[in-house]
Design brief:
Blueprint: E1 4-7, E2 16-18, H1 29-39, H2 43-51, H3 54-66, E3 73-77, H4 83-92, E4 97-101, H5 117-120, E5 121-124, E6 128-132, H6 135-147, E7 156-160, E8 173-179, H7 188-198, E9 199-210, H8 216-236, H9 240-243, H10 245-251, H11 256-266, E10 270-276, E11 281-287
Parallel strand pairs: 2-7, 3-4, 3-8, 4-6, 6-7, 8-9
Antiparallel strand pairs: 1-5, 9-11, 10-11
Length: 288
């Protein structure tokens, strides 16, 4: 099995690793991090309810588009509660490797002050690494891991980190997935550059998210569903304000054409944007 080298300090929780990184203020990062921490306990239940279970179909499509196969090294960005990381682990098996990451974060060290580099350098051999900016989401993912019985899930470790500053070597991964994350990243250009950097030549990034459509009918349906279904249901869980941000985040997101252009300008050789779920959702597939 291949190995990944990180600068790590052994954490108090063996299933939750935080990478040491100099803390720097990031605009709105704390607010978004706190939002995802608040919704973490009911995130899966709400996703099932609000999409009638369809989000699981869309995630399987995204994983399939990534081209991940047995034995691959795979990076899952914005892993959240772990849905796509678990799907990827089934595809790559126990001899593959998955890393998962998400959005803006100020890295934290769980176990005291930093020591010198020689003491920090630890050889980490992992099959799956869940990498996200929300410790609440990672805690849920870790709990799910222990409840699920598939052997390949046992090799997953969870790391707290920043998608715009991935601490992986160039050309490390055979595939990348990102589910509902790029829309929430403040510096999307930097996130795409980091994906391009850590992907191997010829490999793919598969990015699933809400679709910002150019068609008024789809936009109207999408906004009606958020106002009349998503927010009222979330309000029943005490999270109406948290889910109310969805409409503005989609409005501020990129259209399919803009996403393809961003990927190509980043250096990807090919980029295709697929509308799914009746145009409410979409998936960008970018080939390095």
């Amino acid at each position: 099995m291949a190995s990944l080298h990180f600068l790590l300090r052994p954490p108090s929780n063996p299933n939750l690793i935080a990478l040491p990184y100099k803390c720097q203020p990031v605009r709105c990062a704390n607010e978004r991090q706190e939002l995802f921490n608040r919704i973490a306990p009911v995130y899966d239940n709400l996703n099932d309810l609000l999409s009638l279970g369809q989000h699981r179909v869309w995630k399987r499509m995204a994983v399939s588009w990534s081209g991940a196969k047995r034995g691959d090294n795979v990076l899952d960005l914005c892993c959240g509660s772990g849905d796509m990381a678990f799907l990827l682990s089934e595809r790559v098996g126990s001899d593959g490797k998955i890393s998962s990451s998400c959005q803006e974060i100020e890295f934290c060290v769980l176990a005291g002050d930093l020591v010198n580099e020689e003491e920090l350098m630890i050889l980490v051999t992992l099959t799956v690494v869940g990498f996200d900016f929300s410790r609440g989401q990672l805690s849920v993912a870790s709990s799910r891991q222990h409840l699920l019985s598939k052997a390949c899930y046992k090799n997953i470790e969870w790391i707290e980190g920043d998608v715009t500053k991935l601490l992986f070597s160039d050309c490390s991964f055979d595939a990348i997935t990102m589910g509902y994350g790029l829309r929430n990243v403040l510096d999307r250009c930097k996130a795409m550059q980091e994906m391009f950097r850590v992907l191997k030549p010829g490999s793919r990034a598969s990015i699933l998210d809400f679709n910002k459509s150019n068609k008024q009918l789809i936009t109207s349906i999408q906004e009606w569903m958020i106002d009349n279904v998503v927010v009222p249901v979330a309000t029943g869980y005490g999270l109406g304000e948290e889910y109310g941000y969805l409409k503005s985040s989609i409005q501020e997101y990129l259209t399919g054409e803009e996403l393809e252009k961003l990927a190509l300008e980043t250096g990807f050789s090919d980029a295709k944007h697929y509308e799914i779920g009746g145009g409410i959702m979409a998936n960008l597939v970018a080939t390095r």
